[in-house]
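Q: I'm writing up a methods section and want to include an example of the input and output format. Could you take the sequence below and give the corresponding predicted structure tokens, formatted cleanly so I can copy it straight into the document?
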Amino acid sequence: MSGLTWRAGSLVALILIFSVVTLGNFVPKEERQQSDFWPDESIRLGLDLQGGIHWVVGVAIGEAVKHELEFLRSNLLEQFEEQRATVQSIVVENGRLEIVGIAPKDADVVAGLVTDMGSLREVPGTGGQAIYQLTDDWNQEIRERTMAQVLEVLRRRIDDPVRGIPDSVVTRQGDDRVLVQIPGGQIDRGRARELLKSTGFLEFKIVLDRADTRALLEARYPDGISEDHEISVEVDPESEQVVSAYLLSKAPDLTGDYLDDARLNWDQQQRPLVTFRFNPEGGRIFGQLTEENIGSQLAIILDEEVYSAPVIRSRISTNGQIEGRFTVQQAADLAVVLRAGALSVPVVIEEERSVGPALGEDSIVSGTRASVAGLALVLLFSAIYYRLSGFYASLALLFNLVLLVGVMSLFEATLTLPGIAGLVLTVGMAIDANVIIFERIREELRAGKNARTAVARGFSRAKFTVLDANITTLITALILFEFGTGPIKGFAVTLSVGILTSVFAALVVTRTLFMLYPGGRTVPHLSI
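A: Here is the clean output for your methods example:
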């Protein structure tokens, strides 16, 4: 009996705790924050329920093409100098690269060097002048690379869960546009515009000391870290575990203000790496920095997070590379992140509108009515068809709703219009597990088992059927969450949490009620 008392007491405590959390959603935010009784967390409303900002942002692809031609121009100048090929000038104008004043003796060398690049095609020009444009394939590559960079910057600034605006939507729309949706009430329009314009802050710092964890590194300095230094950690993006801790100076040795470009490349063994390029002033500073610190690690820090810390093997000036145990995707991602902190591609808000909360209020009212109506019908059916056992199922269903809303509140989940649909769906599905269990119990009673044995065997035989049915639905919900955006994710979150709480309510709460009555008693018949 002590085990039953502990089990029942734990459920009562859970009900009380989650009831307080659930009721806290109906208390104004200011009152919650000032009170020690109500929790600070609550369910957030999505854009479709509380309104907000809707932007369509255009990306200046033409500027990216111009930037690419400037990059190719710089490379050609260096190669012409190495090959001692004489040209008067190289000009980038109107989306074309013009090589002016080519010495006749060097015409073949110039043409060969341009052809080796593989990204330019020649268009008709006059004598002593060669005109090139980017190939169609390379134009598309630039478009995709630029859009990936813009999305990375905007997501880090707007959709970032720590420093950005929670539950925002930043997604590509067409070839050269980005859709940005920011739920209202979380940020004013002016600040949102500033976030839209800002880029990642990139820093380069020489590593002064390193350890596997922050604790091990701090242990080396029992008197504490000086005010001029700090400890930063590198986190594995897949496992989210700390892989290294670094002692760094607070002042950066170089910032991303001097970085011109970064891109995926391959070494002689066809292993992926990242190449980057500084402007002339950045190249001078970086060359001096690397020359004085050969053999040391150089931490590459983006938004105060260490992204990589390669070893400096030689002096690096304008061009450099980052080697590591990269997959192709990891190297490409690192290049995108570096460009996000350095390359500024002009964007403009082409469409702006405010989504009013009036529709959201109607949706909440309608969704609440639908949920209450569905719940009432389910409770009525359970009580009439399954009698006392149906009453148990009704209590479990009520606890399931309290638990569902409470869990979503604790994790500050976002409720969207499809999320309300998921809530209504959960009400309908929650009784299904109890129906399976009750029918199993009925089968045992028809076979001549007493009430106690029928209940025990009914729950035992139905458990795996209930788990199998709900796990398959949960897998579908997780897929929707992983690949969906915005409202689809809201539906997936509500459905996923609802499945978990429904299984808990059916297998634990309902079973506990049967343990209370009839429990171990001998009864002539079971009210089912």
